[in-house]
Amino acid sequence: MGLLRTDHQAQSDERLMELIVRGDERAFGALYDRYQRKLISYFARMLWNDRERAQDLLQELFTRIARQPGSYDPARPFRTWLYSVANNMCKNEYRHEAVRKAAVPHLRAGYNGTVDATHGDAVDRERFRERLDAELDRLDPDQKATFVMRYHEDMAIKEIAIAFGISEGTVKSRLFYTLKKLAERLKEFGPNATIRHGTA
After folding, report:
1. Burial level of 191, CB count in 10 A (0-12/13-18/19+)?
2. What is the separation, in whole angstroms, between the first and last Cα of the chain?
3. Which distant-in-sequence residues (6+ apart) come within 8 Å of 142 by Cβ?
4. By the 8 A CB rule, do 125 and 115 touch?
5. Which CATH architecture is the domain 1-75 placed in?
6. What's the whole-model pTM score?
7. Long-range contacts made by residues 94-103, C-beta under 8 angstroms, separation at least 24?
């Protein structure tokens, strides 16, 4: 039994999806274990740090995969397809809830972003994190998703382009203007407050 589980864990995402289409429950479990924490984090950041809602969307997404594994196009990398579906689910949340503009983020613990506010102490860094989260919530959904995919999920420009169905140049441009907009809105923290891609 243990050997079978190890074998499944060693398989690529795409191979696991092939097995899921054939009804392999262990393959489904391996894929779920591989992505559940990453997707919870992604949904939470996209949906106002609402971890309960993030958990609901995670279950909904994997229920969809279990019921309709054939909806995945094997010609696409699984990871980019998965985040594309997740992003569309977030957009549906924005439309259906009609609370995005009214959402006022407040103290958010556990921020794992790549923020460096070197001019102040721990309190200043916490304020900066709170403000960054608030400004991310004000962005266009596509801008926010691109930022989160790049700087929180560590996805490559090419992967993001595939997930959105746009060119790599468009992704780079979107990131450039998003970072510029955030820098302008957070300028009160001074020139040493930067948003950068950190190391894991």
Report:
1. exposed
2. 33
3. 164, 174
4. yes
5. Orthogonal Bundle (1.10)
6. 0.68
7. 94/141, 100/137, 103/48, 103/137
Longest pairwise C-alpha distance within the chain = 58
Residue 39: count of CB within 10 angstroms of its CB: 22
How many of the other CB atoms lie within 10 Å of CB of 94?
Answer: 16
Contacts of 49 (CB under 8 A, 6+ apart): 105, 108, 133
Q: Pinpoint the residues of the chain covered by CATH 1.10.10.10.
A: 104-200
- Dump pLDDT digits (tens) for 93-113: 887 765 444 433 432 333 344
Tokens of residue 43, six digits: 């949904």
For residue 8, what pLDDT band results from cuts at 50, 70 and 90? Answer: confident
- Distance of CA 33 to CAs 30, 89, 200, Å? 5, 20, 20
Q: What is the SS3 assignment for the chain?
A: CHHHHHHHHHCCHHHHHHHHHCCCHHHHHHHHHHHHHHHHHHHHHHCCCCHHHHHHHHHHHHHHHHHCHHHCCCCCCHHHHHHHHHHHHHHHHHHHHCCCCCCCCCCCCCCCCCEEECCCCHHHHHHHHHHHHHHHHHCCHHHHHHHHHHHCCCCCHHHHHHHHCCCHHHHHHHHHHHHHHHHHHCHHHCCCEEECCCCC
CATH fold of 104-200 reads Arc Repressor Mutant, subunit A (1.10.10)
